């Protein structure tokens, strides 16, 4: 997932994406522990995608807080 794709999503879509990525991360960890994981590189991709989503969410939250401070 590229950063442009993440930035194009709404808040609800980001939360849903984050939930899906965390579920996938759990499943990948479980597969690795049981020796069934074939695509080891997917763990790294999912971890980075989670970081991208959380970064965009935090940027938006900070921008909203800054806008609120300027208003009030």
Number of strands: 0
Q: Give the overall silhouette.
A: elongated
The CATH topology is Helix Hairpins
Q: Approximately how much helix is present in the residues?
A: over 70%
Q: Runs with pLDDT <50, length 5+?
A: none
Which architecture per CATH?
A: Orthogonal Bundle
Number of domains: 1
Written as H for each helix and E for each strand, in order along the chain, the element string is: HHH
Determine the structural class based on helices, strands and strand pairing.
mainly alpha
Total helical elements: 3
Query: Mean of the pLDDT scores?
Result: 96
State the end-to-end distance.
37 Å
User: Could you tell me the radius of gyration in angstroms?
Assistant: 16 Å
Report on the biggest sheet. Answer: none
The CATH class name reads Mainly Alpha
Pfam family, one: Ribosomal_L29
Protein name: Large ribosomal subunit protein uL29
Family: Belongs to the universal ribosomal protein uL29 family.
GO molecular function: structural constituent of ribosome
Concise account of the structure shown:
With 72 residues, the protein is an all-alpha fold. Helix content is 83%, strand content 0%.
Report on the structure:
There is one protein chain. The chain is mainly alpha-helical and 72 residues long. It has one domain: Helix Hairpins, CATH 1.10.287.310. The protein has helices at 3-7, 11-34, 41-71. The termini are far apart. It is 83% helix and 0% strand. Helix 2 runs antiparallel to helix 3. It is elongated and about 55 Å long. InterPro entries: Ribosomal_protein_uL29 (IPR050063), Ribosomal_uL29 (IPR001854), Ribosomal_uL29_sf (IPR036049). One of its GO terms (biological process) is translation. Keywords: Ribonucleoprotein, Ribosomal protein. This is Large ribosomal subunit protein uL29. Belongs to the universal ribosomal protein uL29 family.
